[in-house]
Amino acid sequence: MARKPIIAGNWKMNMTKVEATALIEELKPLVVGAKCEVAICVPYTDIETAAALCKGTNIKVGAENVAWAEKGAFTGEISADMLLEAGAEYVIIGHSERRQYFGETNESVNKRLKTALAKGLKPIVCVGETLDQREKNRTKSVIRKQLVEGLADLTAEDVAKVVIAYEPVWAIGTGKTATSEQAEETIKFCRNVLAKIADRKTANKVRIQYGGSMNPKNVKELMAQKDIDGGLIGGASLKAVDFSQVVNYQD
Prior knowledge:
- This protein is α/β, with parallel strands linked by helices and about 250 residues long.
- The chain has one domain (about 5-245): Aldolase class I (TIM Barrel), CATH 3.20.20.
- The chain contains twelve helices and eight strands.
- The longest helix is centred in the last third of the chain and has 18 residues, at about 180-195.
């Protein structure tokens, strides 16, 4: 089954509106002919600016998190309706930095995911193991738990709408990268877990990204793997030329 690859940038806590404007204007002509789907997930304060600049282009705009509640006493949170109003189409949920620094759990990921789906946002759900977990041969058990609990109570139809990003935590921002074989093995495992959560037909529809330091040097090798359907790009997404080279990996 053909799955259209998706390359998404995760800006993290970077880029003021002025900086975002400059980056997007430089990026637009560089990715205009991309064969994959292109998205940039930006800080809340940049969403409206990015959405306006990307209107009419092939670049989709996303957020980096979403609240599980529609409104109310949740200081510091941003609701799905607010994201949609600002122009977001995608949203990252459960990034390892949210789990590590801000107490995100599989349960809270599940709650945010259900809200995103109910509101029509396209979720990118992150899973992945730490270096300690990999060295203790716990990669599969950790990821299975993240997927089973994070996608709990979803219908097969909803599972098919989710993008999964496998991000080995030890490869994020470190310059280390899983080998293409390691990435493929784990992403294939993710797909097998999805088949048990939903069914094989649904699992074959789900796009699964690699999210551990994908860059212009390793993108072709990673994207040549059967089960890898794109990348969630951190540092390389903050430089228009680098990000465009990842996006245009097929050229």
